[in-house]
Amino acid sequence: MIDLQRRRARVSGVDMAFIEEGDPESPAVVFLHGFPTSSFLWREFVPLFAPWTHVIAPDLLGCGGSGMPEKAELHIRAQAGYIRELLAGLGVDGFAVVGHGHGGGIAQLLAMEGGVEALVLVDSIAFDAWPSEATKALQGQAPDERREDVVREGFDAFLERAMAKPERLTEALRDAYVAPFIGEEGVRAFFRGIDAADGVGLTGTEDALAELDCPTLILWGEDDPYLPVQVGERLNDAIQTSSLAILPGCSHLLPEDAPETIAPLAFDYLRSKYLGRPHSHGEPGVVAIPLERRPPGA
Predict the structure, then answer these.
(1) Mean pLDDT, each 10-residue run in order, the chain (298 residues)
(2) Which residue, among 173, 154, 219, 164, has the nearest Cα to 40 in the 3D structure?
(3) Which residues are CB-neighbours of 26 under 8 A, at least 6 positions away?
(4) Which domains does the chain have, with CATH numbers?
(5) How many Å apart are CA 111 and CA 127, to the nearest integer?
(6) Model's pTM, two decimal places?
């Protein structure tokens, strides 16, 4: 399993852990995971992107190796602000974003604010299609139900539904994802993250998304039970500069189900649309998937 070292920066008074690889003078690509994962999600992407780009893959506050503050806001609007603060501290202005799940929602907020030059959205929250019913059920739990065993059971259920390829769901993978949320502080952070999924910030954004002029690639697992493929189709209809690729036999955690497909696909797309390098699906490791620009309502 690829092991990537994390750095730390102070963001709004809290330690934010992040992976940083590649030349800081190269075009920046920011990788944003969702909840309840971490930058570990991007371990197959970073080695591919680092020789060509300045890779920045933070752990969102309350996740992974980042601080788990008791008082800091953890909703996506606040997380977008923390990412801006991190990037400003690193001297990064224009950048591309690859975002999954909640990270895709944060990526949309960043793009609507400006400064994002290209987007890759992977099974992203959008519009009013979140939080999921599973998240709502956890939000409704009484304080005495917010225990470590509940976190472990919830994680197991999430991973088993979020991955369509059970042979890839090893014990090491389970442990890597659940580890930050074990122990008293971790359990509190887990439920603070659950409660922060308030469904606010992306509803009614169709007009703002239609105004985006950054090239956007939308990747979706056909069997995603949390964010059905229709959400990806709505995003594709809303963003006029987007292309949509739906991957059969894949679920919500597309970077776990098919990293060998989507990592090179995302890289090749950004190389063409963001880095300005020649685009060729004939190179080894790059998988050609037909991309569709559907007219709205089609």
Answers:
(1) 82 96 96 98 97 98 94 95 98 97 98 97 96 86 91 94 96 96 95 92 94 97 97 97 97 98 97 73 39 43
(2) 173
(3) 52, 53, 54
(4) 7-273 (3.40.50.1820)
(5) 15
(6) 0.92
